Amino acid sequence: xxxxxxxxxxxxxxxxxxxxxxxxxxxxxxxxxxxxxxxxxxxxxxxxxxxxxxxxxxxxxxxxxxxxxxxxxxxxxxxxxxxxxxxxxxxxxxxxxxxxxxxxxxxxxxxxxxxxxxxxxxxxxxxxxxxxxxxxxxxxxxxxxxxxxxxxxxxxxxxxxxxxxxxxxxxxxxxxxxxxxxxxxxxxxxxxxxxxxxxxxxxxxxxxxxxxxxxxxxxxxxxxxxxxxxxxxxxxxxxxxxxxxxxxxxxxxxxxxxxxxxxxxxxxxxxxxxxxxxxxxxxxxxxxxxxxxxxxxxxxxxxxxxxxxxxxxxxxxxxxxxxxxxxxxxxxxxxxxxxxxxxxxxxxxxxxxxxxxxxxxxxxxxxxxxxxxxxxxxxxxxxxxxxxxxxxxxxxxxxxxxxxxxxxxxxxxxxxxxxxxxxxxxxxxxxxxxxxxxxxxxxxxxxxxxxxxxxxxxxxxxxxxxxxxxxx
Length: 472
Prior knowledge:
This protein is about 40% helix and about 10% strand. It starts with a strand and ends in a 43-residue tail after the last strand. The protein has a six-stranded parallel β-sheet, with helices on both faces. A six-stranded parallel β-sheet has the order 11-10-9-12-13-14. It has a two-stranded parallel ribbon with strand order 7-8. It has 18 helices and 14 strands. By secondary structure, it is an alpha/beta fold. It is elongated and about 75 Å long. The protein has two domains: about 1-200, Rossmann fold, CATH 3.40.50; about 200-460, Rossmann fold, CATH 3.40.50.
């Protein structure tokens, strides 16, 4: 089979590469000539574990190619995936579908023979029908069907999610299109992956309902964590106690500074907008959006309170800037609310992230980029864990205490055990758990290094990774 993948952002690049691993001949198309040149040279513009090796092996096998020329990629293809960006539209929060509709027009002019045109981008209900209308208007002679095939890829584990998914959702009422999709996903049929066939509208709704429900679970446990702090309960035990109930499940019951990333923030907003426009407002989701927005600011206030009520003239070490580990994606990361709030309050911020630092320095130029976690902690009045990268899970506590001006940690991901940190003499603040007093608290007279000029700019001599805003 031959397919064209329109858009080489996160979803398009991962999906196209994984289809080529299934034995499909894939051409990935993007208007960004610089990105295509990088991909052709084997330079992957996003960080996703294992993706570089998979791209290289399938390019060598001749199943995966990259181009800026849409017409030959689409001509003769059995299926064309539209995997361009659908960012939140300014003003009302609705998904901006301009990229999807522009791609549909170009595809309509390039198709030859029967073609299945698939929306892989996350799109509101009714988008597939509008794509079909656009294609018919642009090319009345086109022989095609429009299918909805939403993605459920988690950044950091996207390849595994594609190769071994919980389910595949396919929205179409055309048996001809269904047969093409069965052939595309034949490998997953062989391992008995559940394939859910629906109509277009249901498929589009499934994607939004899934992401919104997960965002709601996160927000629920975050609010429960706040209550636990007030009444002396431990949110981790609460989460385990309710998560063992098969009706609830244990996943996404981890308290933190609020959800971020490329999906949950924009998808919850888009569903709220669609629901209001349809006359069926989703009050729960509206509250989820409001609570999550408020929470990020509250986390900055928690850091300030831990530092004595003021961070003016103080240095705060930030570990982790991306919205989650194992990605370089900064989109809607809690750090983009928390760090600027600390800077505005007069703090100096020394930060380290294993993959997101170059983009973070573009978005937050006033932070001081550091070489590693201990470099970030040198002379700081407190250290904050914002993203739970694995390398932050086993910090050398004595080395950490020696680096800090004061042994204070605000752990917004609950990586460490409060009792262990107290025993080590660290004033430790986490989320939704009792905070025992440190037993051996001492202040280390660390000489503060003059970093007024800041370290060398890590993006001065290299291209910063794209925000891949056109990936969903």
